[in-house]
Amino acid sequence: MAQHKQRFSPLRDRLVVLAQAVGTVAAVVLLSLLVRTLWHAPAEELPDFSALTVTAEMTLGQLAEQNNLPPKVVAKALKAELPAQAGQTIAALGLSAEQARQALARTLALKAERESKDFGKIYVKFALWIVLLILPLVLLVRRRLTRAAQVAMLAGAAVLFGVILGSDPSPMGTVKDAIVLGGAHRAVFWPRIIALAVFLLIVVAANKFICSWGCQFGTLQELLYRLNRRGPARRGVFPLIRLPYTLSATIRVLVFIALIVVAFAWAFDLIGPVDPFKVYHPTTLGWLGGGFVALLLVASVVVYRPWCSLFCPFGLVAWLFERLSFWRVRVDLGKCIACQACALACPSESMHGILLRRALPQDCFACGDCLKACPTGAVQFTRPGAIRRSAQDADVLAKLRR
């Protein structure tokens, strides 16, 4: 009887994990649909300005009338004065038709960007990010992060910053949308640049904390992964897959380069059709996007943060700024016994690189698994100078590198 029960236990556990994962995603989608219905937010998709009708013989008034635009907008775009130059042609202003079209499209794109933003909601969202990220920081520094607290904070971040406050803004969007707007219209939307700067300051303050504990899609991925993972060692009800560092880094760099090339060469948003943050705005997901996001969420059960590791443009930028983080995972080699339990517990290859003091280890998402796994307390989430170098550091490093 005992053998019969043991034989079917893994199957039962897998069914439980599947039910939890499906239920989590279904709840996110359904609640997002409900919130979007109740909260009449501005449209986040920008209109296409490629169909503007512009000829060099048009006057400013004709240009405004032909394209159904306010004369003030046309004058601002072409740097003309009203009413003095209202009757002048585009050619008389020293512009070609293409130059006028580009200037007008740039002005309209920036105007549409401003009108698509609910700045009141954005200010609230950033304030909550800054305040609520203090809790995981305190728990990690004090080594008191439990699995229950971790799951609760991940679920809370996904619901608050995704379901309730929406897909925009997001860390990924600040990089991706800045590149696309620059490529399509050679324009800079400064509120987005300021948002990016704030996100990067959070990364520098505490190791990639905005990705780890604040990003609405990053936390959803990690929540699904945590439903599958069991215990401090690297085990899962479904077998876990650790992506090789060289593979994840190569793919992410290539995606980043492709995003830039496509944006500037063809004015196209490469990520837009498959943007995973649209899981919080499901009606904007087509078949391609829906299939890609579903694949990402399924993969998240066994692969640690597949979007973050393989595709996210902000993840790549934040990985570089991660080198400057004030609070981050550090190893006291004076206490280290070279057991590598921390590296085994790490869901990626990040801890292996940190142990060996590599200049560019894989992304660390401050999950705390390494802290829980270390038997001597050598692994700490701490500030610079909190760990002193000792004479035996070189010996421990030599053991680790064997």
Which residue ranges are poorly predicted, with pLDDT under 50 across at least 5 consecutive positions? 1-8
Number of H- or I-type helical stretches: 19
Protein structure class: mainly alpha
Give the end-to-end Cα distance, rounded to a whole number of Å: 47 Å
Major sheet, described briefly?
2 strands, antiparallel
- Give the topology string: H per helix, E per strand: HHHHHHHHHHHEEHHHHEHHHEH
The strands making up the biggest β-sheet line up spatially as 1-2
What is the number of strand segments? 4
Radius of gyration: 25 Å
Quote the average pLDDT: 91
Form type: elongated
User: Please, how many domains?
Assistant: 3
Percent range of helical residues: 55-70%
Share in β-strands? under 5%
Explain what the structure shows.
There is one protein chain. The chain has 402 residues and is mainly α. The chain folds into 3 domains: 2-43 and 118-320, no CATH class; 60-115, no CATH class; 326-400, Alpha-Beta Plaits. The chain is 58% helix and 3% strand. It is built from 19 helices and 4 strands. The protein has helices at 2-38, 60-66, 71-77, 97-115, 119-132, 134-141, 147-164, 171-185, 190-205, 209-214, 216-228, 245-266, 287-300, 306-310, 313-321, 341-345, 350-355, 369-373, 393-400; strands at 229-230, 235-236, 328-331, 379-382. The strands form 2 sheets. The protein has a two-stranded antiparallel sheet. Helix 11 packs across helix 13 (287-300). The longest helix has 37 residues, at 2-38. The model is unreliable at 1-8 (pLDDT under 50).
Question: Which features characterize this protein?
Answer:
single chain, 402 residues, mainly alpha, Alpha-Beta Plaits, two-stranded antiparallel ribbon, 3% strand, elongated
